[in-house]
Design brief:
294 residues; alpha+beta; six-stranded antiparallel beta sheet; two-stranded antiparallel sheet; 15 helices; DNA-binding
Length: 294
DNA sequence: CCACAGGGCGGCA
DNA sequence: TGCCGCCCTGTG
């Protein structure tokens, strides 16, 4: 990979397995805006950055080399060898087909607290609504970042900002019955520095420990805990099962009528430590192709 | 107006 | 342990 520094833009040349659309549309991220030119504007780490595939390059606009090195290299999972992961996951025809639709997927390394709250909002909720609630919370309680391409952008509220918010104001952001849960989680983190440390260590402690810890929060069960571990904790053995993954697995593998527990076991045996990557390829494939699901 | 979508929790076998 | 009704909001 070559990095070209264009002052307000960073251009990546000769980067393999990196497709902006696939990365943003595979269900791991909520705070982005699809621009008319097909580029994606991301809000993360109190920054607003725009990404686009142009020919065989990635153009990253509204950033600089310092931020690229300090934030985006890790966030975009640039140093992980996806060709190796793919070769290890092409174990059957299902996976070969799924991967062929999303060879450019990356699993991002997102902020742990933001992902924790975001996926708590995802409980019994649809993606457009989840995105709306997160935007509402950011506008209501987060700090203003800047204007970009005519739109105002706000940072995700900090632990303090969310913990100090009134319950009624959180409800007004359309969080519904999740309002108490996210407020309680923020208050717990505000008042317990050791829990913040533990949350930030979920990429270093064993998967089971992280799972157990996350599930002590009201509003975090198996699915959401696994999402947090996968999307912010580098725990790529995590295999979150939502209604979509359940249907996909029941359709593509001999698992019709099997419970989540049995699907979890199957995934662990089949995909091992790469189950999280497998989940992303399968999800993107099923959503992109509209295959008939059970 | 109604039916339905979408995880977690708490009550109850 | 497993099942079931409920939580909230938006869409068809």
């Amino acid at each position: 990979m070559d990095i070209i520094d264009n002052k307000t833009k960073i251009i990546l040349k000769n980067i393999k397995n990196f497709n902006i659309k696939e990365i943003f549309e595979c269900g791991q991220i909520f705070r982005y805006f699809l621009e008319d030119d097909g580029s994606y504007t991301l809000t993360a780490h109190s920054k607003v950055v725009n990404f686009k595939n142009v020919d065989d390059c990635i153009v990253i606009d509204h950033t600089n080399l310092e931020d690229f090195n300090n934030i985006w290299v890790n966030y975009l999972d640039i140093n992980t060898d996806y060709e190796k992961i793919i070769s290890e996951l092409e174990i059957d025809d299902v996976m070969k087909t799924a991967i062929s639709f999303g060879r450019g997927i990356r699993i991002l390394n997102q902020d742990k607290y933001e992902i924790m709250i975001s996926f708590m909002i995802s409980a019994n909720n649809r993606i457009p609504m989840i995105r709306k609630v997160i935007e509402n919370l950011s506008v209501a309680f987060g700090k203003y970042i800047c204007k970009y391409r005519g739109r105002d952008y706000f940072a995700f509220p900090t632990i303090e900002e969310l913990a100090n918010a009134d319950l009624e104001d959180i409800k007004n952001c359309k969080a519904g019955f999740r309002s108490e849960r996210i407020r309680e989680a923020a208050i717990r983190l505000r008042d317990n520095a050791d829990e913040v440390d533990l949350l930030h260590s979920i990429d270093e402690i064993p998967y089971e420990k992280g799972l157990e810890f996350l599930k002590t929060y009201k509003g975090i069960g198996d699915k959401i805990a696994n999402c947090i571990l996968l999307f912010s904790g580098k725990q790529v053995a995590a295999f979150p099962i939502d209604v979509w993954i359940r249907r996909i697995m029941q359709t593509l593998y001999p698992l019709s009528d099997k419970s989540d527990k049995e699907i979890q076991k199957f995934a662990k045996e089949k995909f091992g430590d790469l189950a999280g990557y497998a989940q992303q390829y399968l999800f993107y494939y099923a959503r992109e192709t509209n295959i008939k699901l059970k």
